[in-house]
Amino acid sequence: MFAKRMDSLKVSDIREILKITANPQVISFAGGLPAPELFPIEEMKNVALTVLDEAGAEALQYSTTEGDMPLRKQIATRMKSKFNIHSTYENIQIISGSQQGLDLSGKLFIDEGDVVLCESPTYLAAISAFKAYGARFIEVSTDDNGMIIEELEKILESTSNIKLIYVIPDFQNPTGRTWSLERRKKFMSVTSRYEIPIIEDNPYGELRFEGERLPALKTFDTKGMVIFFSTFSKIFCPGLRIGWIVADQKFLEKYTLVKQGTDLHTSSMSQREISKFMELYDLDANVEKIKRVYKRRRDIMLETMKEEFPDSIKYTHPQGGLFLWVELPLYIKARDLLLRCLKDNVAFVPGDSFFPNGGVENTLRLNYSNMSEERIVEGIKRLAKVIKEYE
Amino acid sequence: MFAKRMDSLKVSDIREILKITANPQVISFAGGLPAPELFPIEEMKNVALTVLDEAGAEALQYSTTEGDMPLRKQIATRMKSKFNIHSTYENIQIISGSQQGLDLSGKLFIDEGDVVLCESPTYLAAISAFKAYGARFIEVSTDDNGMIIEELEKILESTSNIKLIYVIPDFQNPTGRTWSLERRKKFMSVTSRYEIPIIEDNPYGELRFEGERLPALKTFDTKGMVIFFSTFSKIFCPGLRIGWIVADQKFLEKYTLVKQGTDLHTSSMSQREISKFMELYDLDANVEKIKRVYKRRRDIMLETMKEEFPDSIKYTHPQGGLFLWVELPLYIKARDLLLRCLKDNVAFVPGDSFFPNGGVENTLRLNYSNMSEERIVEGIKRLAKVIKEYE
């Protein structure tokens, strides 16, 4: 009765684990949720009233598929100031969270059996979004500096029907790693020999706690092949479901076309609320507040891990974003570890979910944005205790 | 570079025409927009404040894919009271407007080349949603009482790979027609011999101006094969993009799975706002207000058509909803008529867009919900004048 693609779709581990962790006794490093105590609720009251006062009928009416013009213009301006990406509103498509950008990209580019090149590991929900269109994945190995370019080169040379390259160069989900400047340049140099669209997924780029900001791949994009995704979910709030695509018009008009059949347009009210917030308040100040809190949480997590974890455990030291990545000794399977940890009321996401072709069982992802410092310390201690039981 | 499906997708006529009709001098019967002057803007201010006061952090945070529980429960209750459909929250999936239900259904059921059975004509945006998944359409003829059951029977007997039956039995878009009780019963009797999912798309059912309410197909659904869609877009406001699916759990859990990869979840804030509106105010009273206004607009449109149109022009007399359907003499092509009408600043949608396999050129759709009575009279006069030039 169902389409063939349904055979390959399964329930997201993270979603299922999050259901268990709804129990408040569980200290969950599993999700990727922002800290809700930082949401500007009082400001949003004023914003909602102002939008309804000034243009209530428009905010509650059908709107254009491309998105509301003032917001598209504000985003184009922000793309310049934050990422040095030159664009106009005509390059901006508003989407219902950047997850929708992944779905629309699958619809736009992927036929059954086409190849998506991605980092190994990569973002879980990108895997399921592309799989729904029959994508196969070729994973390119990564290290602390990003994608291994020599491997990328070999795969590009030897593989036909690569339809898409999907990367997260800033504070990657799940590893928290950021690509070095050299890798970015080499990546763009190598890929520029091909006519393959590149999705640069960048939900976390503005959340840099320390170190130098590195240029987006899109700033090296002389052929207009980089499709840049971002979102208000991590720098503002996710519940309004507003993200955007920045792309050359040859791509943007196609995205608009597929979005039209997918959900007509993104909530007019939400678009106008975010636009009005940016007009009335200081989004940058909000981002600074988020960064301060997340930096402290990352610090306390890393400090506690240093104190509590056996030396055999390796982990990344992200300079921003929401996640870090743990590599266990090969004899510890992360799924087994999770089951034991849940008995002690602590949770994380086993890393194998982030490898589209599977096979890596000794990694896990930890989130530090959604938990108080005390809970982070307590949670890491619980996790360390269970890990030590394997020794 | 693009997926094969993109070859068959084209820009929606309605969207393109609506761009022209943004000019306020144009009297447009082309869209399907609700009357914005009826949106409860003052109430929405109170609703937004209350939601942010009572649960601001939750309203701005990520939420579950299924949708917020209180809203799902309210919808289940409303399905009983308005459509006599028995369900619990476990049968309700919240979606980003009922258009998303069409997209998710394509993803869930349609492989390249599969057949969708539909009314002839049918809803334009359903055609593009299903085409994106490679659907072929077989159109079943309709008359004033709905789908011709004998034809449906023959097609079902003689066609393999029918994956979906898509119908709009109440105040259909584009014709405004409503299926008779007898047709509903026969349709369910005939289709119950097959294991084919049936989408009953019902955005307009509550907007009945006169005549007896007829039971939803889903009330005759003994095998759990009817998937019922509805939306707040026509009974409340469309800008928040909130619709829902009512279905057996065997379907519902699959919808949840595909929605997860598509956009994670629908705006938490919008869901809570609608839920709070239904708690604090009387949605039924809002629906009554809408019905009174639309009935007057339909009446004045029909009266003016009766006075102004030549006798050779046939048109439907809808008992509710937003649209009526005009059949011109065969020698008048609606696309040609539209080009002439645009010079006189009046617009409509040519009917051929609503036939998935094309070929019918002498029909058009008129919308009466979005225009004042004066403008309706003036617009119909202009349209009649151009039509008379063909005589």
Concise account of the structure shown:
Two copies of one chain form a homodimer. Chain A is α/β, with parallel strands linked by helices.
Can you give a write-up of this model?
Two copies of one chain form a homodimer. Chain A is an alpha/beta fold. Chain A has two domains: 4-40 and 285-388, Alpha-Beta Complex (Aspartate Aminotransferase, domain 1), CATH 3.90.1150.10; 61-280, Aspartate Aminotransferase, domain 2 (3-Layer(aba) Sandwich), CATH 3.40.640.10. The first copy, chain A, is built from twelve helices and 14 strands. Chain A has helices spanning 13-20, 41-60, 69-83, 98-109, 124-131, 149-158, 181-191, 249-263, 268-280, 283-308, 334-343, 373-388, and strands at residues 27-28, 92-95, 115-120, 136-143, 146-147, 162-167, 198-201, 226-231, 243-246, 314-315, 323-327, 346-347, 349-350, 363-367. In chain A, strands 2-9-8-7-6-3-4-5 form an eight-stranded mixed β-sheet, with helices on both faces. In chain A, α7 (181-191) links the parallel β6 and β7. In chain A, α4 runs parallel beside α5 and α4 packs across α8 (249-263). Chain A is globular, with a radius of gyration of 21 Å. The model of chain A has no long low-confidence stretch (mean pLDDT 95). At the A-B interface, α2, α4, α5, α8 and α9 of A face α2, α4, α5, α8 and α9 of B.
